[in-house]
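Lab meeting prep.
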Amino acid sequence: MDFKNFQRDVKCFIGLKDAEMFVNNFEKLLQTRNGFYFAYELDEGRNLCRVFWADAESKREYHAFGDCVSFDPTYGTNKYCMVFTPFTGVDNHKKSITFGCPLLSNEDEESFKWTFGKFLEAMGKKEPQFIITDQDPAIKNAVPAVFKTARHRFCMWHIMCKVADKVGTAIGKETDFLSKLNEIVWDSDLEPAEFEYKWCQVVGDHGLRENSWLTYMFDIREKWIPAYFRDLPMGNILRTTQRSESENSFFKKFQNQFGTLVEFWMRYETAMDQQRHTFKRLEMESENSVPQPITLSPIERHAISLYTHEVFLEFQEEMKSSMCTCGMVGYTKTSEYEVTEIEDASRKKTFQVRHIVGCDEVECNCKLFERRWIICRHIIWVLSNKHFRNIPDKYIMPRWTKDAIRKPIYDIDGKLLDDYDVTDLKKLEMSKIWSEIYATVGVIARKEVGDMKNLASILKHFRESLEPTTETTSKGKEL
């Protein structure tokens, strides 16, 4: 059979029942995949206008990595002009990960409210700490209407992609304006006053003080410039150019202005298989291989045991800089805390590390830990010189560790945690208990028989301590 004719006949058949086949596919997945979530709506003409879905794996990943979420409505998908608007985040390998997937025929405020509502419903009402979007007015209104606690910020990458068009091709491409603007916009070491001074200087030097777009972007600077949220953990959400371009390329695989919904689903499934295969490969590599240390520091070896390769390499850069570019230039001590002034030659700045006397609490005014959840070179310098052997527990963020995604766990009813929305605190705590029991049994199975007997005895005594006595039970019956 001629392949082109076969393809034409298949498309013709699909075209007649495309939306129906698309929805029926999801209805079957609800029956066959544990924890699958799906919702849709039809417009007044009985046409498919809104769809949202998330599977159990996406939900599990969201509970591990959903602190910072990006929502990007820029991907056209099919001949019906529906827009694919994925919810994404960053996993423990610093790769983009997909949490939930809407398809929308209208990009209006009501459609976005519906989408955000379904996302929260699928994720057990758990809100992210931060949500990042573009500047679409409908999205700006919909976010606070649905997300009550999440902080809303604008995507720097999308904004910076517009600069050349907004200031004119000649200025944008033929001068050093773009490079200078990028330098100050992405500089997370700047304090707000420093940023404002440098922005005005760059804009003024290139004769752009009257540019209305730049004026507006400066007016809303607290919504997108890192200088205004240096102490917020948004290192996972503020996109680098490389990651944004990679994510853009990944989702463009779904774009086909002449394609059907069924074709879109097939492309989506293939792409998600690829994304998840990459994640599992990186998980195996982090679990089964060891990065090369560059020092004899026990702190570095502790980091090797904790972090995935990608996160450890970032930590290692800080470790290397702590040795090569940092040195103490001042020290003060009170009864409550010690302050060490660290000169950082690579940044040509001096930073202050404060250590609370008598405990493991440290903080640095460079704010790297607050932004990216790994300790900075200045803190590493102080900890190393105080002969710490480990990174204090308070500064180990589970989302960056090798076991950020735990093995399947069960609730009190014997269900997989992924099978339902986690809203019952009692069930959540029971799932943690079961996980600890399974983990302990796994360890004890490799020990001596005596250890097993000890565990059995401990569990028995603890259970008996929780059970009512015979006397109490009898009295209860008499009453």
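Slide two material, second protein:
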Amino acid sequence: MSETGTAPSRPLHKPRAKGVLGYSEPAAVALLFGVAALLPHIPAGGLNGPYWHGVLTGILIHTISAMGFNLLVGWAGQLGLAHAGFFALGAYGTTLLYEDGVPYLVAMVILGMVCAVVGIVIAFPAARLKGFFLAIATLAFGELLVKLIELGPEMWDWLDTGASGGRSVRTVFSVGESNGPLTLYFTALIILLLTYLVMLVLTRGRMGRTLKAIRDIDVATGPIGIPSTRYKLVAFGISGFIAAIAGGLYAQDIRFLSPASFKDNMLVFMLVILVLGGVGRIWGPLLGAMFYILIREQLASFQILRLIIIGIALMIAILALPYGFASLPRRIQDSRFGKQLRNMPLARLFTL
């Protein structure tokens, strides 16, 4: 009985157990990364071969990049389209620093900090813009970065970017022909885990709640004392840092850099990954990258069919799954026919 003499009201619905099949979410994440660690050793389907090592590594790298983009677009609601420029700057800058004698991982961190600072600098004027105007302004800046990389040798003799013809990349992860791609895969996997942990802390804490408030009711944040500009600057900086780290890994993955690789196609690629996987969902980038890259690789010889499948998937995601594939398990759980699947493996994990 309560103090008023009335019995406490019972909840309308039985609370859901946290975790996955009775396990905590950290255990589910550990299971996911454990499977990912074993995946390149499985002989079935040739997963233990160099080709699939490259495909799996590409999925991890683009997931890392899209996670940073997702923080800016999905949580902060800022359609900053300079992401491809930061990605390119990270790829080229890390390669050049490594060739000058800087350890590769250190070079990635340095370029990450550089891109974070650049992201904050462009966010100062961009933070006052919204919607279409913000998208155009940041898109122009991203294109400017790529153009400066392309014109680098003409402007500065010491800047060997290969100009429009591109340039090869000196490999780092090359302990033998077969172990090189595998070493890069595990490096990307570890960085993805670190990125996930950072995103988890940011999005589930005060910053995540504040960014959602800025995204949903930006006009009202000022009167209630939320420094929206400061949080936007932080989101731009973190997004730029993660994009540069992913770019450094990307350079080692493809081993050849060309400015054409970082123009419109790269940005569209990132947007498609987010829409398919789920904007504002931590694991949305992984699902989107898996779908897009696997379709692209398996249908490499059927370009029209590939575009049709991706187009249909985008239509389904936009019309039926506004939060992308990451919301599908929850939609199934909440449906009348999915009550028996409430504890489906990894369902909770992919709807974080």
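Talking points for slide two:
Residues 90 and 244 are 4 Å apart (CA to CA).
Strands lie at 167-168, 256-257.
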